[in-house]
Amino acid sequence: MVCCSGASPARAKRVGAERFNDQEVARLVKRTALAAGVRGDLSEGERERLFAGHSLRAGLASSAEIDERYVQKQLGHASAEMTRKYQRRRDRFRVNLIKASGL
Question: Is the sign of the CA dihedral 74, 84, 20, 8 positive or negative?
């Protein structure tokens, strides 16, 4: 059985043809981030406030290695400026600082 919550199978809701609403997605992201220990340096309450459904949008915008205009179109942003707000630290793991410094 496929379920969409951490509840026991007897109490779990079955996944159907309907899509998740925004609150369900937010709860799923929060629960997953907590379970994975993401940002373990923060309190549980701080992590719950930090992660939500928009974390998925920001992750997509930040990790997509395509032209920004395609990301903008996919996310439905009217301006490139809004898309850039979602693109969080894009080069964080791409730039090798040791190579960049010549070492």
Answer: positive
